[in-house]
Design brief:
Elements: H1 4-18, H2 29-36, H3 40-46, H4 50-71, H5 79-95, H6 98-108, H7 113-135, H8 149-170, H9 176-196
Helix pairs in contact: 1-2, 1-4, 4-6, 4-7, 5-7, 5-9, 6-8, 7-8, 8-9
Length: 199
């Protein structure tokens, strides 16, 4: 007998797969149910809306992110090198699945109640990973609540610059390389400023 957790995961996986090559808005819940091998009513027992599926997809991405960086922390001899490695991996993970990336980016920028919790979790996990890269440690050893003001500020700004650049990529305004260059330049200036202030 299929567990609720397994069923939910299957529905999310199918929804993400169906979004490849087209906007998630064009994926119908009936189509998702059929491809997942569940009745439409069963799907609605797991997810009350398409937005809730998107929220689950964001959580799925966050879980993968956590596992990946806990197992393989950002590499480099300096904070800048580690930040470069971190955002190169984040960008590569999303841009290899463009339709899914656009779904996640859209979800992060929305204020829908079925998505906001997943977005907050994603923000927290990304902040933890950036702080770990700055320190040169594993994310699992970082408690964001104990991060310095400088670390939290740098992480906040880098996350938002990366997100803005990814939105540009999503819109076809900039390419993969431009996203990485934007984050590198921002990190270089922020780290130099923090060093000059003795932080």
């Amino acid at each position: 007998m299929t567990s609720d957790k397994t069923r939910r995961s299957r529905i999310v996986e199918v929804a993400v797969k169906l979004s490849q090559g087209r906007d998630f808005d064009k994926v119908g819940l009936r189509e998702v149910a059929e491809q997942a091998g569940v009745a439409l009513g069963t799907l609605y027992k797991s997810f009350s809306s398409k937005e809730e599926i998107v929220g689950a997809a964001v959580q799925y991405q966050t879980t993968r992110l956590k596992r990946q960086f806990d197992k393989h922390p950002a590499k480099g001899d300096t904070p800048l090198e580690r930040v470069d490695d971190l955002f190169a991996r984040l960008t590569r993970a999303l841009t290899r699945r463009p339709a899914f990336a656009r779904t996640v980016l859209g979800a992060i920028s929305t204020n829908h109640p079925d998505i906001s919790g997943a977005v907050l979790e994603h923000d927290g996990e990304t902040t933890r990973i950036v702080v770990a890269a700055l320190r040169g440690t594993s994310p699992q050893d970082v408690d964001v609540a104990n991060a310095t003001e400088s670390e939290q500020t740098i992480a906040f700004l880098l996350r938002h610059i990366w997100f803005a650049s990814m939105v540009g990529w999503s819109a076809g305004i900039s390419g993969h390389a431009k996203v990485l260059a934007d984050v590198h330049d921002a990190a270089r200036l922020l780290l130099a400023g923090a060093e000059a202030l003795g932080e």
